[in-house]
Amino acid sequence: MGKRLDLSSPAMFIGRQGNGVISFGSGQPDLPPPREAIEGIDIRKDLRYGLIQGELPLREALAREYPASTAKNFVITNGASEALDLIFRAWGKGKVLLPRPYYYSYPPIITMAGMEPVYTDLVDGRIDIDDFRKKVEGCRAVLINSPSNPTGRIESIDTLKEIEKITAKLGIYVISDEVYKDLIYERENYQIKGEHVITVNSFSKTYAMCGVRVGYLWSSDQKIPEEIIKIKTHTSMNTNLVGQDMALNAMAAPKQYIKDQQRIWRERRDLIYKSFRELGFDLWEPEGAFYIFPKCLNPREFVETLYLEHNVITYLGEWFGAPSHIRLSYALDAEEIVEGMGRIKEAMKKVRCM
Amino acid sequence: MGKRLDLSSPAMFIGRQGNGVISFGSGQPDLPPPREAIEGIDIRKDLRYGLIQGELPLREALAREYPASTAKNFVITNGASEALDLIFRAWGKGKVLLPRPYYYSYPPIITMAGMEPVYTDLVDGRIDIDDFRKKVEGCRAVLINSPSNPTGRIESIDTLKEIEKITAKLGIYVISDEVYKDLIYERENYQIKGEHVITVNSFSKTYAMCGVRVGYLWSSDQKIPEEIIKIKTHTSMNTNLVGQDMALNAMAAPKQYIKDQQRIWRERRDLIYKSFRELGFDLWEPEGAFYIFPKCLNPREFVETLYLEHNVITYLGEWFGAPSHIRLSYALDAEEIVEGMGRIKEAMKKVRCM
Predict the structure, then answer these.
(1) Does residue B42 form part of some domain?
(2) CA–CA distance, A25 with A346 (Å, rounded to integer)
């Protein structure tokens, strides 16, 4: 088995939908963006270059959500991905500590920038603070992601505060990838603070506009945005202006939009978690984001069989540093989740999962 | 003098317009995009991730303009800048030959990717094919840009064919940055051909939509797009979908749109060239793009004085590898060009230019 598909990365699955495919693949909301993000947009006729740092009204709106900040603390980027890519390129060397399992793009962008990823293995989907303390020594930065893609777990506020303290003391940067901060089922988000913190976020998940590619980075230390702008001037210039207009309008949507989304995600989480438990899988209950990360005995064979014989996209855990898992995004309506789980049950007759 | 402004790069000038500023800075059309690019856009409600390679209808439309091509030969990028950045990152080592003066982003993106720029100096704004032949030995790639930013010059078709032959024989890639290919005043564009050619282009200049950030790369060798997609999956994912819709619509605009633009650019070229000659500057007559590149005795002092005392943005030649020049973009209406040239004449009373 194996070798029937190019499973070296998720690239072949991204953007595939329709034609009877049930995609538990790409991590992206299937719900529509807020009305405001689309209907309010009057595409401007002046489409000349914008500021590399991002449009001022958007950065000012963001500044109102970050304590003691101004527009100068932000850079608007092509999604959170580009924000991370630019941060590592600005450093260009040193070690970055990653909790493992990790989002699959982290190691390649760290390596491509000339930096070296080192790992602290999660215990039950959470950071083991003793191991963290050991591994973080000698690092230039640590990259955390709570709620986590792919585990769906969140770190406790105590852990986050401890990370804040340890890194501040050692003078190590914390990059906090908070793209799922509005999708926590258990508690409010806790934002790590300090001069050594760089927060990365995006409009993709909160406002269901992944394809528009608007994200940003924030730092209380204005030197960080300045460094990033120097690189972005050469690599992609301003982030697309229409997308920035859409992001600004989305921020004006009523908060109820986000609450409604959370309710839907929670219902789906309950549905898929129960369904996997009934099939006998070993897995954590997701607490945030929209991923579920079951253990699987023959993951490669299972992912291939699901795609080629059942038209179902799932992701290999090995892309996330966890070769004995598979990852599913439950960004599907209940009916599709039920249909997809039915196909998974069928495929289990052929491939041994546990 | 000097040190009054951060003139280490053009970053501080990009995106600055209005408030009485006359900007001969950023190279971007001031004319509006074709109606089709804006009015025809119905922002879709499905804003999920698109294909990393780019939307199929846009790549299919492009394929009709490139002989013997299909949608597979293209990757849609965040402007031509990102296309170039991704190409060099895909290689990651080796030498790249650059004609000098060069577009200011070329050396940093080559260096950031771990590659090394080497130079062949232009003679009278054109490639010296003997020097080219010598310098290209041992390079992995050569990057050409005709019409050229900053010189406004075009290479002869004989030179382009000779470059095609030399590099094919040596197995060296040619990256042809053709973002100004629709802005040649003297002749049709000549497209370099061969398995070893990567063409980079954008919708920014032809359709006056720089801020939308949609460009692309083309190669007859499908392995190149495949390599690029692997990187882009991690660094920025799909190019923004609304921008891709706008680019596709722009391609449907009547060809008269492009012809009208060319006529306007030619008139402006004539105006600014004559004006600089009358002031006594030593310079080449631009043959394409919308840049003029006069020699200047005290360029740093002149650029600073123009900005701080006359509200005029011009760019330093040293950013383009030509420290005794200044660069002006004439993407301004005739009235502004006349006003700007008046201010330049004033500033010449204070700073000696020749």
Answers:
(1) no
(2) 19
